[in-house]
Amino acid sequence: MKRFERLGRILRMDPHDDAFEIYRLTAAYEFPWDVTRALELALYRTYAVPGIGRLLAQTAELTGRAQKRYDDTSLLLDAVVEHGFDSEQGRTAVRRINQMHHAYDIADDDMRYVLCAFVVMPRRWIDAYGWRRMSRHEIVASAVHYRTLGERMGIKDVPRSYEEFEACLDAYEEARFGWDEGARRVSDATLDLMASWYPRPLAPVLRGATLALLDEPLLKAFRYPSPSPVTRTLVRGAVRARGRLVRLLPPRRAPHYARQNRQIKGYPSGYRLAELGTRPVPGVGGCPARPAKGSASE
Q1: 226-252: per-residue pLDDT in tens?
Q2: Which residues are CB-neighbours of 294 under 8 A, at least 6 positions away?
Q3: Global pTM?
């Protein structure tokens, strides 16, 4: 198989009718590493919304059980990618996601924002650091995939196109990003988790490298100091260089799914999709939650 042969196959498909197969090819064959990093960043940036980050701190899901939360989120989302929405595994994963969220009074605008992050951040990451840019077919298919997920989660007014997802994300972040002490604890715990995947002496370097990949609104919301221009250039240049190297390698012949990632550490003996995820915490309103009217992040 030649380097761009799979892309040619994607371009012969219909981005709406074949959206789920296109997204699977993109996420599991063309850009598995990049999609994983981008979805990590997508989830991470939601903590910069005070209402989301504060409640995550209260539930301790990402301060006391960060690895489990990471594993469960990755495995549930990727079960749909691997098996499809209408498979037994896909239905189980979506049902489990809904069970978790239906335990709380969750604001649609908060849920919609998280969905937007899943659509927009992979496109932005891949276009910046991937071995090639995403094709229009892949962008459209990604929007269809997550629009379907949003509809099956019962989220109202899910955007219809990539451009609508992107506009929704940017407007939400401009209006809602801000400082919260609990959110900062969640952010620190997440950075510590990512550093824990590598030898301990590398932790300070990895933390600095991660901060160099963040944009200014995120750094400002968490009150992290801005990395130096030299650090930004070196780190971002190194990630771009990885993409250029991948471009020279033979194309992937076998799919790579989240369950195969070495960062998934909590289930060495296997797992059951129906048992993954969080359970309600007594006395805590959920993550994110809202009162009878409005949003938790207001």
Answers
A1: 999 999 999 999 999 999 999 999 999
A2: 107
A3: 0.90
